[in-house]
Specification:
With about 60 residues, the chain is mostly helical. About 75% of the residues lie in helices and about 0% in strands.
Length: about 60
């Protein structure tokens, strides 16, 4: 994958991971599904951290 494509994907994911609207939608979905909001947010944060690590969204942006 070209370097500029990786940068575009990183920017897209970074923007979505920290979108407050997405977090509020998650809270609403948890309410509708009968899931504890704190539990839902904990899972969201775990997955967001996994994605950040996977795409090197934090730290050096070196390409392999």
């Amino acid at each position: 994958m070209k370097r500029e494509h990786k940068a575009e994907i990183r920017a897209f994911l970074y923007e979505r991971l920290f979108d407050d609207n997405l977090r509020w939608d998650l809270v609403k979905m948890c309410d509708l599904a009968g899931i504890d909001q704190l539990e839902g947010m904990e899972i969201y944060e775990q997955e967001a951290a996994r994605i950040r690590k996977l795409f090197c969204l934090f730290g050096d942006e070196q390409d392999a």
